[in-house]
Amino acid sequence: MPWVGRARSRVAPWVGRVVSRVALVTGAARGIGAATVLALAADGWRVLAVDACTDDPALPYALGTPDDLAASVAAGNAAGGVVAGFEADVRDENGLCDAVAWAEAEWGGLDAAIGVAGVIAGGVPLWEMPRDQLDTVLDVDLFGVVALARAAVPALLRRPAPRDGRFIAVASAAATRGLPMLAAYCAAKAGVAGLIRGLAADLRGTGVTANAVSPGSTETKILDESARLYDLPSAASFAAQQPLERLLAPAEVAAALAFLAGPGASGMTGAVVPVDAGLAL
């Protein structure tokens, strides 16, 4: 479902504005996704901000809302970019294909796809984890990235050669560090890292790259939920395990994602870049 700031016209916000590259960002309503929309917009990108904008009955915490996505869109437009919102669940490959098709029809193509959407669940050993929570973690955190690749990479390849498309995903320090009572999350994020390496090999010679960022403990709703799962007083408790002795801001992770989307990362593919305050050391 496409919309731009809930305006009736999908065109008015960018009429008369000169912009260039086009990106699609999932999980765009809040956290790292919203920060990535803002970072790209500030660099002059056209950004299709995608989010499911609905809670999941398997998860005991609230997810992003339509109002959150509208705020992300408004912030991006205020920063100088051209941002539109699109409601789609990353578990729905057809919905992601619709989002990609919208970007191509309205903006002429796609230059970057950035998979940020993620959830967390656990708090018990894997064998005690409710099956619906297990499925949700794997379906959103891993197969949501797979679905984005299947929907977006063909559009990246439809750009004429020589092309310089970017497929980027958010993994986690959990991809390489085992976290107690979060085995499904660790598996999903390790899968994202492996997916990126394999996708980079598949994209050999096309001009399209595939990279990922692995954040450490970042000030997001997922970290708040992690604190609850571990029965900690707040997410701030996680700062002590990072050598920088603080939590990351979503903007710090978004800066790395924006870098990977830009010309400075032209020599990188198959990389999983840690932005983790040293957590994975």
From TrEMBL:
<dbReference type="InterPro" id="IPR020904">
    <property type="entry name" value="Sc_DH/Rdtase_CS"/>
</dbReference>
<dbReference type="InterPro" id="IPR057326">
    <property type="entry name" value="KR_dom"/>
</dbReference>
<dbReference type="InterPro" id="IPR030981">
    <property type="entry name" value="SDR_subfam_2"/>
</dbReference>
<comment type="similarity">
    <text>Belongs to the short-chain dehydrogenases/reductases (SDR) family.</text>
</comment>
<keyword id="KW-0560">Oxidoreductase</keyword>
<dbReference type="InterPro" id="IPR002347">
    <property type="entry name" value="SDR_fam"/>
</dbReference>
<keyword id="KW-0520">NAD</keyword>
<protein>
    <submittedName>
        <fullName>SDR family mycofactocin-dependent oxidoreductase</fullName>
    </submittedName>
</protein>
<dbReference type="GO" id="GO:0016491">
    <property type="term" value="F:oxidoreductase activity"/>
</dbReference>
<dbReference type="Pfam" id="PF13561">
    <property type="entry name" value="adh_short_C2"/>
</dbReference>
<feature type="domain" description="Ketoreductase">
    <location>
        <begin position="21"/>
        <end position="226"/>
    </location>
</feature>
<dbReference type="InterPro" id="IPR036291">
    <property type="entry name" value="NAD(P)-bd_dom_sf"/>
</dbReference>
